[in-house]
Design a protein that fits this description.
CATH architecture of chain B: 3-Layer(aba) Sandwich
Radius of gyration of chain A: 12 Å
Number of helices of chain A: 4
Largest sheet of chain A: 5 strands, parallel
CATH topology of chain A: Hypothetical Protein Ychn, Chain: A
Oligomer: heterodimer
CATH superfamily of chain B: DsrEFH-like
Number of helices of chain B: 5
Radius of gyration of chain B: 14 Å
Distance between the termini of chain A: 22 Å
Order of helices and strands of chain B: EHEHEHHEHE
Number of domains of chain A: 1
Helix content of chain B: 25-40%
Distance between the termini of chain B: 26 Å
CATH class of chain B: Alpha Beta
Number of strands of chain A: 5
CATH class of chain A: Alpha Beta
Structural class of chain A: alpha/beta
Order of helices and strands of chain A: EHEHEHEHE
Helix content of chain A: 25-40%
Largest sheet of chain B: 5 strands, parallel
Number of domains of chain B: 1
Structural class of chain B: alpha/beta
Strand order of the largest sheet of chain A: 4-3-2-1-5
Chain lengths: 100, 130
């Protein structure tokens, strides 16, 4: 049973991403949306947090929300996707959990 | 697939209702079926026909109303959340002797049981908060 973890708040505001990373298993995926996309920027303390992720965990960020915030220099292991891919991810996983 | 969507974030201060609308549009585009959209907590403000947006901003309430009517979607506003926030249809306005009703076209007021029903009858459920 794989799970899509949808993180919608900034790691600078909440522990949502931390909780998702601690909960996720190898087959899961994490999708950053809304202010959650701030976790996709290259920053030293972000890489410390990302190190908590289980190996092989796939990470995505919603392109519309990344672009709306004019974020550049995203970390390499995060893939930018659109809403159609968001729908595909929801269908590919058995469950989705929204971390606010 | 059959998908249901829960929205909990306020349309005036959070992005949830916007994200949920874009998700629903993409889901229908991909050929999936939306069984129900359930608006809960502050998201019930989406169902107010009385909100007015500045001319240079998207009117999210109108966009949702147009979307659910165009696709004949089942769009449920949680009645308990709605009554507390002053979102009433005609029968609730009459029942509580209020001077007006303001539920936007395309929405209906109902209970949380409708969300339980949606979870039981959908392949996937997605929640949009914050």
């Amino acid at each position: 049973m794989s799970t899509l973890h949808i993180v919608s708040t900034s790691p600078f505001d909440s522990n949502a991403l931390l909780s998702a990373l601690k909960t996720a298993s190898q087959d899961d995926a994490i999708l950053l949306i809304q202010n959650g996309v701030y976790a996709a920027i290259e920053a030293p303390h972000m890489s410390v947090m990302m190190a908590l992720a289980p190996s092989g965990l796939r990470m995505y960020a919603l392109a519309e929300d990344v672009d709306a915030r004019a974020l550049h220099g995203l970390t390499q292991h995060i893939t930018k996707i659109g809403y159609s891919d968001f729908v595909t991810l929801v269908c590919e996983h058995h469950n989705s959990v929204s971390w606010n | 697939m059959i998908i249901s969507v829960m929205v909990t974030g306020s349309p005036v201060s959070q992005q949830a209702a916007q994200s949920a609308l874009s998700f629903c549009e993409a889901a229908l585009c991909a050929g999936h079926q939306i069984y129900r959209v359930f608006f809960y907590e502050d998201a019930v403000y989406v169902g107010s026909a009385l909100s007015v947006s500045p001319q240079d901003e998207r009117n999210l309430n109108a966009a949702w109303s147009e979307f659910v009517q165009r696709h004949q979607l089942d769009a449920v506003i949680c009645v308990a959340s709605a009554l507390k926030r002053g979102i009433l249809n005609n029968s609730e306005a009459t029942r509580y002797q209020k001077p007006a009703a303001n539920l936007e076209a395309g929405f209906e007021l109902s209970g949380l049981g409708q969300w339980v029903d949606a979870c039981l009858n959908s392949d996937r459920v997605v929640s949009f908060g914050a």
